[in-house]
Amino acid sequence: MPELPEVETTRRGIEPYLCGQTIQKLIVRQARLRWPVPAALANDIRHNRIERVSRRAKYLLIGTDSGTLIIHLGMSGSLRIVKDNSPHGPHDHIDMLMDDSILLRYSDPRRFGAWLWTKKDTDSHPLLCRLGPEPLSDDFNADYFFDRSRGRKLAIKSFLMDSHVVSGIGNIYASEALFRGGVHPARAAGRISRQRYVKLVDVVKQVLTEAIRQGGTTLRDFSNGEGKPGYFQQSLNVYGQSGNPCPVCTTPIREARTGQRSTFYCPHCQR
Ligand SMILES: [Zn+2]
């Protein structure tokens, strides 16, 4: 599943091709995504000029002179830049044709992604208005995180993955951050000291920044905007490493369930 680093990698990959371009045409071959692609979308964005490509949590925001396209990659979505005469495959559901003969091509085998449109401020959109701060922004800091955790019995891993608390941290990076922070994933969020929250905020920013730098993971079928695969999965310490030795202490990594999700941790290093 594309996580925040993959979405940011995609954003950086497609941005230089899209900014300043005028949308000539939108071809929707399959409108049944997580929510139906609005029937009027092709008309609404035709001849719009793209002014910016930004990101909020795991949403890509393509801002034009008349509104914003809100794209989510869901479980298996990917965006690529291709020549306008490239033949499309069975999962290439949407093509957005630009004025210099390139296409933004959306592929999504499992169809859990989304293409939506708003003319209003995106911060007030129902999907975005309740999101917590961006993990890489200064608003996500130890004071904020610690304060939000007080009185919470929820496991720290689920707390870290709650998008109302901090947006866009998925299973892989929550597991990796907790490993680096030395915190057991099942520990109650409200029972963790301020000092450990200082460390946690630090390692969350670290793992995300490193992943973005390395181009995102390719655990499934993700390829970045220019069609090159990412390669972060080699550096994952615990995620998917069940039974393998901990890179720090060699204790076998354990797998457990936290809030219905697989969790990987070192029983010796994480307390
Ligand atoms: Zn260990």
What are the salient characteristics of this protein?
four-stranded antiparallel β-sheet, single chain, alpha+beta, 10 strands, binds zinc ion, 271 residues, 6 helices
Outline the structure in words.
The protein is of the alpha+beta class. 24% of the residues lie in helices and 21% in strands. The chain has 6 helices and 10 strands, in the order αβαβββββββααααββ. The strands form 3 sheets. Strands 1-6-7-5 form a 4-stranded antiparallel sheet. The chain has a 4-stranded antiparallel sheet with strand order 2-3-4-8, with helices on one face. The chain has a two-stranded antiparallel sheet with strand order 9-10. Helix 3 (142-149) crosses helix 6 (194-214). Residues 218-226 have low confidence and may be disordered.
Short structural summary:
24% of the residues lie in helices and 21% in strands. It has six helices and ten strands, in the order H-E-H-E-E-E-E-E-E-E-H-H-H-H-E-E.
- Put simply, the count of helices is 6
Small molecules in complex:
zinc ion
Largest sheet: 4 strands, antiparallel
What is the mean pLDDT? 91
Q: Determine Rg (CA atoms, Å).
A: 20 Å
Low-confidence stretches: 218-226
Mind sketching the topology for me?
Elements: H1 4-18, E1 23-28, H2 41-45, E2 50-56, E3 59-64, E4 68-72, E5 78-83, E6 92-98, E7 102-107, E8 114-118, H3 142-149, H4 156-160, H5 171-181, H6 194-214, E9 254-258, E10 261-265
Antiparallel strand pairs: 1-6, 2-3, 3-4, 4-8, 5-7, 6-7, 9-10
